[in-house]
Design a protein that fits this description.
The chain is of the alpha/beta class and 489 residues long. It is built from 16 helices and 16 strands. The protein is elongated, with a radius of gyration of 29 Å. The two termini are 56 Å apart. The N terminus is likely disordered.
Length: 489
């Protein structure tokens, strides 16, 4: 079928959808001769840092692994993990015993593929053992993973020179060790374990995991969208943005996202309604599947549930309950704090995580009107921190925000004159979110007050507050013109 409109959708099969621009052409063929389709599509070139090599990890069950540690408890912990993964393994309590077992395995034509070596051992430490392994022609093909109790600056580079493929600090998480071993095994398979190859560390494993995570941001405010995407990109995650709940639902139907950051107040469909609809669709998939295989579909844990974290500005009492009722998993307050956001992402994208309730306490913030007046309209330190130190990005965002202010102020004035509380609430909410994200605190406070008035339907003092807001806008505009960005640190 061919669906026409501003953006034409061409469905070519049961699950294939091709969206094209106005240059789509459909030539209807004769029966038995088929049809011809053609279209023109323009795509933006992606930044090089987003182009990641996709590698299928080697199954570590095929690996023969030697665990070397003088501490019996440490050996037991690693061995139990290897056993749970189905690996073939042996152990050694010293460097000398390790060399002996490595050589015996070669003689029996059953060599070890990987040696997990503790750094601190008596008589022969892990560093020395590694050098002995790499100097022996019969053993030099063994990939080595170093485990150290304390990580020191520059230690990974030195260990790499010895010939180690990976360097992890203890205590090592089970998931981290697994990812390390699969990476090292894959380096062996494709021949990447060479002097020029980067050493595998806990940090590199974490960064690789991030690149495999895709996040959807549902936010109608353009400034907030860009700030969120900028933060996520600099944290190492891939992210897309949509402007309302309807678009969020459509995006989830076409892409498997690992996490959704959902603004609660959006036009057309807000975050609460969108979340309820997403949960219904997830359950319907389970119900449909179960009916096909003759199973009961009353277990919500079987649903392909995508974690949804609400984004709400100045969280008020009762927001937690509303989020839970709608089916959200957690919430974070706006303006976005990069450290808090990173913690939320880690919590809800870890493999095998247990579902938890929305955190209580610490997230609800005071009204911005209670904050002390700043000496300047923009807290550049906070704004630059939120922009992760990118001055050019912050400068562009402030300039873009400046161009939108006249229209926003006029919309607020019109809403007050018409006594339209709903419009006042929405327009003030939008302005408040942008100002707060850019750390223009006093402007955000005045906009918040107007938003509350609109929500409560009490507009009597609206003119006075709008005057205060206009004063803050004037202060902001004058201040931005005078910023010397070369002096901003």
């Amino acid at each position: 079928s061919l669906r026409t409109g501003p953006s034409t959708s061409l469905r070519t099969g049961p699950s294939t959808s091709l969206r094209t621009g106005p240059s789509t052409s459909l030539r209807t063929g004769e029966e038995g001769k088929g049809s011809t389709f053609w279209f023109t599509a323009i795509f933006e070139k992606q930044p090089e840092r987003r182009e990641t090599e996709i590698v299928i990890p080697e199954d570590i069950r095929t690996q023969h692994i030697l665990v070397v540690d003088d501490n019996a408890t440490n050996r037991l912990v690693v061995k139990e993990q290897l056993r749970s993964w189905g690996c073939r393994f042996d152990e050694a309590s010293s460097g000398a015993e390790a060399l002996d077992k490595l050589r015996q395995a070669v003689a029996k034509e059953n060599p070890f593929d990987i040696a997990i070596i503790d750094m601190q051992m008596p008589e022969m430490n892990g560093d020395t053992l590694g050098r002995n392994i790499k100097e022996d022609p019969d053993l030099m093909s063994v990939s080595m993973v170093m485990l150290a109790s304390v990580g020191e600056r520059g230690e990974a580079a030195r260990i790499k020179e010895v010939g180690f493929a990976a360097y992890l600090t203890k205590p090592v998480k089970q998931s981290q060790l697994y990812d390390c071993l699969t990476t090292v095994a894959d380096m062996q398979r494709v021949g990447k374990e060479r002097p020029s190859a980067p050493i595998v560390t806990g940090h590199s494993i974490s960064e690789d995991q991030k690149r495999n995570i895709r996040i959807l941001v549902a936010e109608d405010n353009v400034v907030n969208q860009k700030v969120a995407l900028h933060i996520l990109e600099n944290l190492g995650y891939r992210a897309d943005a949509v402007a309302n709940g309807h678009e969020a639902i459509e995006a989830l139907e076409t892409m498997a996202y690992d996490l959704v950051l959902m603004d609660v107040q959006m036009p057309e469909m807000d975050g609460f309604e969108a979340t309820k609809e997403i949960r219904k669709k997830e359950m319907s998939l389970v119900t449909g599947h179960s009916s096909l295989v003759g199973e009961k579909a009353n277990d919500e844990s079987e649903a392909p549930r995508v974690p949804i974290v609400a984004m709400t500005a100045y969280a008020m009492k009762g927001d937690r309950e509303r989020c839970l009722e709608a089916g959200m998993d957690d919430y974070t307050t706006k303006p976005i704090d990069s450290e808090e956001l990173l913690e939320k992402i880690r919590t809800w994208t870890e493999q095998g995580k247990e579902a938890s309730d929305i955190a209580t306490g610490g997230n609800e913030k005071d009204d911005p009107k209670d904050k002390k007046e700043d000496a300047v309209p923009v807290n550049l330190d906070k704004a630059l921190e939120r922009a992760l130190g990118d001055k050019e990005f912050l400068e562009n965002m402030l300039e873009q925000f400046t161009t939108t202010l006249p229209g926003q102020i006029e919309a607020l004035r019109t809403a007050l004159e018409q006594g339209n509380g709903e419009t006042l609430q929405q327009e003030a909410h939008d302005l408040k979110g942008s100002a707060a994200n850019l750390s223009i605190d006093e402007m955000a406070a005045a906009a918040f007050e107007l938003e509350q008035m609109g929500r409560e339907g009490n507009l009597e003092a609206g003119g006075k507050v709008l005057g205060e807001l206009e004063t803050e806008v004037a202060r902001f505009e004058a201040y931005v013109k005078e910023i010397d960005w070369s002096l901003v640190e």
